[in-house]
Amino acid sequence: MSRPDSGSNFGPRINDRIRITPVRLIDETGTMLGVVETEEARRLAMVAGLDLVEIAPDVRPPVCKIMDFGKYKYEQAKKDKQGRKTKTYEMKEVRLGRSMKVDPHDVEIRVQQARRFLLEGHKVQLVASYKGREMAHKEIGAVKLNDAIAKLVDLARLDSPPRFNGKRLSAMLSPDRARIDAYKRKHPTPKPAPTKAEKAAAAKPEGDAVANGDSATSSTGETAVKKPKKVTKPKKVVAATDATVATPTSTEANS
Q1: Please, which residues have CB within 8 angstroms of residue 48's CB and are 6 or more apart in sequence?
Q2: What's the maximum distance between 2 C-alpha atoms anywhere in the chain?
Q3: Which of 33, 35, 56, 202 meets the CB 3.0–4.6 Å disulfide criterion with 63?
Q4: Do residues 126 and 144 make contact, with C-beta atoms less than 8 angstroms apart?
Q5: Pairing verdict, β 32-36 and 23-26
Q6: Which CATH number fits domain 1-69: 3.10.20.80, 3.40.47.10, 3.40.190.10, 3.40.50.1100?
Q7: Any idea what the Cα angle at residue 6 is, between residues 70 and 30, rounded to 5°?
Q8: Is the pTM of this model over 0.90?
Q9: pLDDT 10s digits, 54-64
């Protein structure tokens, strides 16, 4: 289907924008038709109700294909979108704090944070900082940093050993895929806790559910439904009266 030239220089040339002749033509089924004149190629595309698209402009003669250009652009945009969704990994910095004042509990929290980053596939840079006279006792921060590294080697490999950069002592770790897979096999992800509604449904006895008119599922998978109760009609009560009506006998009736 012939379309007017949009005048845009982006994307492949189609239909009337293809000026060079001849071209090497591929039809809509993928069959190579050989070298034909551009006008003839446009005519064949018009007969098929499709577009003539230049797919290899740098070769001589250029390669053109008969296709639905709108569908082609949609599929290319879909592929580009899926490519952008690919997860990217980055470097995460975990600061252990001041070497002299950091609490062991705080260090443990930072180590757990670094473990989470490594399990997600990110690189981790551990940093211990110094201030003032703390530089005279560099070994204190080095000990804490090495202890943190020792707690992470089951998931990572040490890319850069601890080294000083000014008043910062840092080390770089990268996730080790084999170690992470082994860790995940040994420590599977726990199932999420049941919600309140699920707990209430599990705690509700099956008999109570049937008695209340609810459906209950048995161990065999069958659904038990409450049977309708029989409705009994109330008995009629005849009230006794003081006056007694005598029934006449047959003799009295004849007299």
Answers
A1: 27, 28, 66
A2: 144
A3: 56
A4: no
A5: antiparallel
A6: 3.10.20.80
A7: 35
A8: no
A9: 988 889 899 99
